[in-house]
Design goal:
Layout: H1 2-52, H2 59-74, H3 78-91, H4 95-112, E1 121-126, E2 133-143, E3 150-157, E4 165-171, E5 176-177, H5 182-190
């Protein structure tokens, strides 16, 4: 009986967290956006109607978009960034919210940030051992401090649950760069390998020299 309960508990934990990672950010985003729209609509609608004697549909949505844009713009300066950090400080102290927020932020940041001269590329490497291959995301190079050899920083995203994974450093000579799109890669991973990408090729990658070289 105890063994069955452990299996049930393990199954619930394995599927509940990935489900929450997908659902919770969407629900929170919808609720926050709905609240913002209603807030601005209720705030400005009486003013507009009293002065202009007309109703402007969508004013709440328009002001919500402008507000979100300004919040994003504020993160570019010191005080705005500190305010965002304060908000994160409160969120990560809530047990469930901490798990969801941290995981979602990590994967979104990894998949959306890139250097202009070194875009992310889908690669194939031998991992977790020789003879077994994994698809990963190339995020740039690190120089080995001992040998000076170029090591590629590769993110191996966990299958089915893309909010976790492993970051490994692989010698440049052992990385196989592909022309596989990020979209097809994610479909392959999230489906657990069911949606198999076809007709992708191994392509050469030329190391770019630094400006002072």
């Amino acid at each position: 009986m105890l063994t069955i309960w452990k299996k049930i508990k393990s199954n619930i934990r394995a599927n509940l967290i990935p489900g929450m990672i997908v659902v919770v950010p969407i629900v929170i985003s919808i609720l926050v956006l709905r609240w913002l729209i209603n807030f601005f609509d209720n705030l400005l609608r009486p003013i507009v109607e009293n002065f202009l004697h007309i109703y402007i549909p969508g004013i709440g949505l328009l002001l919500s978009i402008i507000f979100i844009y300004l919040v994003g713009l504020s993160t570019k300066n010191y005080f705005g960034n500190k305010f965002i950090q304060l908000g994160e400080w409160f969120v990560i102290r809530i047990p469930v919210a901490k798990t969801v927020y941290t995981a979602v932020k990590q994967i979104i940041t990894t998949l959306t940030t890139r250097e202009s001269n070194q875009p992310q590329k889908v690669v194939i490497i031998e991992y977790p051992r020789n003879g077994i291959y994994s698809i990963g995301l190339f995020n740039g190079f690190i120089d080995d401090p001992a040998t000076g050899e170029k090591l590629g920083s590769i993110l191996i995203i966990t299958s089915i649950n893309p909010a976790s994974g492993f970051t490994v450093l692989v010698p440049f000579s052992q990385i196989r760069f592909t022309d596989l799109s990020l979209d097809k890669m994610m479909k392959y991973i999230v489906s657990g390998g069911i949606v198999i990408p076809e007709n992708f090729k191994i392509v050469p990658y030329v190391l770019k020299k630094k400006n002072n070289e």
